Amino acid sequence: MSAALRLARPEDLDRLMGLVAAFHAEAGIEQDPDQRRAALAPLLEGIPHGCVYLIGPARAPLGYVILTFGWSVEFGGMDGFVDEIYIRPAIRGRGIATEVLLALPKALAGAGLTALHLEVDRTNEAAQKLYLRTGFKPRDRYMLMSKKL
């Protein structure tokens, strides 16, 4: 895989903070740096509810993907959610996200996951094409709904 994945560790937090801040700015997600740090740190320290993979070289990652884990009776066991995936704008369009989204589900299935989910902005046609191309399918009768606690 040219877009090698490496499990992020606590020492990657500062590097990851910059990437996540860039994604959040692009996506219009408002979160202060302390909240962002508090949300990322447990994932890097081995919390069992999720993980972060850095994409590409360790010194200068091309992006990242954050996965969270849950349980689904409908899908028959442990499932995952692509919480965020980000590729630096300057290198988009080179197939890196496609490569990640084709390889990662295979590895996760081997670890016992039964399904992988994600959400996409209804107006983001490029992202929708990427996700369709990598095997994700819309669930026409369902929509993700959230309640902030």
From TrEMBL:
SUPFAM superfamilies: Acyl-CoA N-acyltransferases (Nat)
Example of a GO MF term: acyltransferase activity, transferring groups other than amino-acyl groups
Gene3D superfamilies: 3.40.630.30
Keywords from the named record: Acyltransferase, Ribonucleoprotein, Ribosomal protein, Transferase
Annotated coiled-coil segments of the chain: none
Cellular compartments per GO CC: ribosome
A family per Pfam: Acetyltransf_1
The keyword Ion transport is assigned to this record: no
Protein's UniProt name: Ribosomal protein S18 acetylase RimI
Organism: Ruegeria intermedia
InterPro entries, sorted: Acyl_CoA_acyltransferase (IPR016181), Bact_Acetyltransf (IPR050832), GNAT_dom (IPR000182)
Domain annotation N-acetyltransferase: ranges: 3-149
